[in-house]
Prior knowledge:
- By secondary structure, the chain is an alpha/beta fold.
- The chain has a domain at about 1-70 and about 115-195: 3-Layer(aba) Sandwich (Rossmann fold).
- The protein is about 30% helix and about 15% strand.
- The protein has helices at about 15-25, 45-60, 70-75, 115-135, 175-180, 185-195, 215-225, 225-240, and strands spanning about 1-10, 30-35, 65, 80, 90, 100-105, 105-110, 145-150, 170-175, 250.
- A five-stranded parallel beta sheet has the order 3-2-1-8-9.
- β2 (about 30-35), α2 and β3 form a beta-alpha-beta unit.
- α1 packs parallel to α2 (about 45-60) and α7 (about 215-225) crosses α8 (about 225-240).
- The longest helix is centred in the first third of the chain and has 17 residues, at about 45-60.
- The two termini are about 30 Å apart.
- Residues about 80-90 have low confidence and may be disordered.
Amino acid sequence: MRQLRLLSLGAGVQSTTLYLLAARGELPPLDAAIFADTQYEPEKVYGHLDWLITEGARLGGAPILRVTKGNLRADTLQHQVAGGRGSGAAKRFASMPFFIEGEVSNTTSWGMVRRQCTREYKLEPIRKQVRRLAGLKPGEVVGDKVHVEQWVGISADEIGRMRQSRDYWITLRYPLVLDLKPAWNRNDCQRWLKREYPDHPVPRSACIACPFHSNAEWRMIRDCFPAEWADAVAFDRDIRVMAKMRGRAYLHAARVPLDQAPIDDDDPSQGTLFSCGVCDT
């Protein structure tokens, strides 16, 4: 049986810590790390990923592989991705968790779009790459040909996110919780990175126009990255004219245009109660 040890690399604080610990020999070596690119990450994330590839090569660490399903921004505005099989297959939304305001029986209704972007643009591309690395053909039954230990950058403060794989031949492992004694939380990872790499702060990994941004994150984008802020404002405007969307969609919980949203407030209803759960690890 072939054995593989792989890392789901979100390029955030926790998964970066795992990758570097393995590359430095402080955790078991990896065979590869896999980064799923939505093609809508901030430039600082792509810059960090380039640095991590270089640092990993210097340390003799595992290769970092990039996979992608496509451009999440473009697919969302086209509001369709391939669904089902065959050239005549139906089309459906590339769903992001927008805040919705609509009219039902002459009254205003509120809600959120069901989030599918994490699964479709992060988890599924990684899973396909895992199968390729395992030497499996599309649709091939695994049997006892291979076993994969797949590392996930969940820390001790996120223990509720730990789960088992749906694939019997993949074991999800959480080294920050299970292998480091005592278990590390996100702050432990940040302290280690700051001590070992003081000249390279690690950014939070999240798409430019993620509706899960907190007000503080929106302020940071507005004040420090004007081009990305302009992109998010334009994207927020464009999602309200998508023909197949029921109701008016917004990036901010206040359900007003992003450049009018109360992002200077400390509002717990925006961002802090929600988390993508994958992208920022």
